[in-house]
Design a protein that fits this description.
27% of the residues lie in helices and 26% in strands. The protein is built from 4 helices and 7 strands, in the order H-E-H-E-E-E-H-E-E-E-H. Strands 1, 2, 3, 4, 5, 6 and 7 form a 7-stranded mixed β-sheet that branches. Strand 5 and strand 6 form a beta hairpin. The protein is elongated, with a radius of gyration of 24 Å.
Length: 182
C-alpha cells in the first residue's frame, strides 16, 4: 500500500493546480482542516482505503484498492452559490487532471470511470470541492515466487524449466481442435 500512496502523493505534487497534501482518516482530516492556514489551500486529501481487491494474474498479485481522494478549496461561511460553483469547478478540473496523470503514469491500469461527490457543508471547515471514489489498480503488482524448497502435497507436481533450453511452444485450444462455425 505504501507504494500506491507514494505514487498518489507524487502525482498530486505534479498537478498544475498546486495542492497541500494530507493523508489521513476523515475524522482526523475534519480536525486538521480547521488548522490549515488559508495560504496552504487548496488541499488534496487522500483517505486510506478501507477495501479493494487483490488480483492474481500471471504469477503476480496486483493490489487494487479503492481510494477516496478529495480536492478542496476554501469557501466563505454562508457562501453564495455562484462563488461556490467557481471553486467547485476549479477543484473538479484538478480532479480530472489527477485522473489524467494516473493514466499517463504507467503505474496504474487506466482509469476508465470513477465516481465523484461534491463536498460542501459536510465538514466542520468551510471548504468545497469534490471527492473522487477511484479504484487504483497497479499495473505490475508483486511477483509470486515459488521456491524449489517448497514441498507440495501429492498429487501436485511442479516442473522447473531450464532457462537456456528452447522448449517447443505449448499447444493451445485452437491448435488442438478444428472448429467450424458454419
Amino acid at each position: 500500500m505504501v507504494r500506491i500512496e507514494s505514487e498518489i502523493k507524487y502525482l498530486i505534487s505534479q498537478l498544475s493546480c498546486k495542492h497541500t497534501y494530507i493523508y489521513d482518516t476523515w475524522d482526523r482530516v475534519n480536525v486538521q482542516l480547521d488548522k490549515v492556514p488559508e495560504d496552504q489551500f487548496p488541499v488534496a486529501v487522500v483517505i486510506p482505503p478501507i477495501n479493494g481487491q487483490m488480483i492474481v494474474k500471471k504469477a503476480r498479485i496486483v493490489d487494487a484498492p479503492n481510494f477516496l481522494i478529495s480536492f478542496l478549496g476554501l469557501a466563505e461561511l454562508d457562501f453564495d452559490g455562484d462563488v461556490n460553483e467557481l471553486t467547485l469547478t476549479k477543484e473538479k478540473d484538478c480532479a480530472k487532471e489527477f485522473v489524467h496523470l494516473c493514466n499517463a503514469s504507467g503505474y496504474f491500469e487506466p482509469i476508465e470511470r470513477c465516481s465523484y461527490t461534491d463536498v460542501f457543508e459536510r465538514l466542520d471547515a468551510n471548504v468545497t470541492g469534490v471527492v473522487l471514489e477511484v479504484n487504483l489498480q497497479e499495473k505490475k503488482g508483486t511477483a509470486i515466487c515459488i521456491s524449489p524448497d517448497i514441498k507440495f502435497p501429492e498429487p501436485t507436481s511442479i516442473i522447473y524449466l531450464k532457462p537456456d533450453v528452447n522448449y517447443p511452444e505449448p499447444k493451445t485450444f485452437s491448435d488442438s481442435f478444428d472448429i467450424n462455425f458454419d
